[in-house]
């Protein structure tokens, strides 16, 4: 557990694994992965400050960001503690060797119990929103994910997602495109969600080859026991 002395924003960030090369943590919900225009405490800066304090390091602390989670999303993330580890983990992300699994609670129920979704997504940088467009549109990028239905009740469904690409807001936009808006998603589902509801998307498993030791690493994180997660049983992944 990493502790931070940050005045009004004291944080407790669970450390799942740490060695000389990597740091694996559970990102809290509603915390930016890196500094943004809000200037709220972000995960990368908080972890750097913690490493500096725990190891009494002089000067700047190196911590490489190799993948991201949207601000409302919690769950498992890996950071690189050396430039060599950062390079190798970045290559793993690029070649899709970093295996990321998510769970989400959505409104409704998908028409198929399991499927691969392929869409072309275009991001409007002015509004920071993403939309599904036709293939060939300038600046559009292909987004691919696999999903599996894990359970349904009371108009909600629990979905397991494996990403093949890492596009901004990909899971939220692709599932909304098939009529399964994420619970609590105000940006892409304001018609069915109420203000103040927490986005129900969680990075629940992460698997990769250790960048130096070459051992297979697997980490798991479970969502908080609160609505809507407590309506379902989260399986071992």
TrEMBL record:
Alphabetically ordered keywords of this record: Isomerase
Known catalytic reactions: a uridine in RNA = a pseudouridine in RNA
Domain spans labelled Pseudouridine synthase RsuA/RluA-like: 21-177
Listed InterPro entries: PsdUridine_synth_cat_dom_sf, PsdUridine_synth_RsuA/RluA, RluA_PseudoU_synthase
One Pfam assignment: PseudoU_synth_2
Coiled coil, from the record: none
Superkingdom field: Bacteria
GO molecular function, one term: RNA binding
GO biological process: pseudouridine synthesis; RNA processing
CDD domains assigned to the protein according to its UniProt record, in alphabetical order: PseudoU_synth_RluA_like (cd02869)
Family to which the UniProt record says this protein belongs: Belongs to the pseudouridine synthase RluA family.
Protein name as catalogued: RNA pseudouridylate synthase
Organism expressing this protein natively: Paenibacillus pectinilyticus
């Amino acid at each position: 557990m990493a502790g931070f002395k940050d005045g009004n924003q004291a944080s407790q960030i669970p450390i799942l694994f740490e060695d000389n090369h990597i740091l694996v943590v559970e990102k809290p919900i509603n915390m930016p992965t890196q500094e943004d225009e809000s200037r709220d405490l972000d995960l990368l800066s908080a972890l750097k400050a913690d490493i500096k304090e725990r190891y009494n390091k002089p000067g700047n602390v190196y911590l490489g960001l190799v993948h991201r989670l949207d601000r409302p999303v919690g769950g498992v993330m890996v950071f690189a503690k050396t430039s060599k580890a950062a390079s190798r983990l970045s290559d793993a992300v690029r070649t899709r060797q970093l295996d990321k699994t998510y769970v989400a609670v959505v409104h409704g129920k998908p028409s198929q119990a399991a499927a691969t979704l392929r869409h072309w997504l275009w991001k409007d940088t002015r509004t920071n929103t993403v939309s599904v467009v036709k293939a060939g549109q300038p600046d559009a990028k292909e987004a691919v994910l696999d999903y599996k239905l894990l359970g349904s009740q009371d108009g909600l469904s629990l979905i397991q997602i494996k990403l093949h690409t890492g596009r901004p807001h990909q899971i939220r936009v692709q599932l909304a495109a098939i009529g399964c808006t994420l619970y609590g998603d105000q940006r892409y589902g304001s018609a069915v969600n109420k203000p103040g509801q927490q986005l129900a998307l969680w990075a629940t498993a992460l698997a990769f080859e250790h960048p130096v030791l070459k051992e297979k690493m697997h980490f798991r994180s479970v969502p908080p026991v609160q609505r809507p997660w407590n309506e379902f049983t989260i399986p071992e992944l």
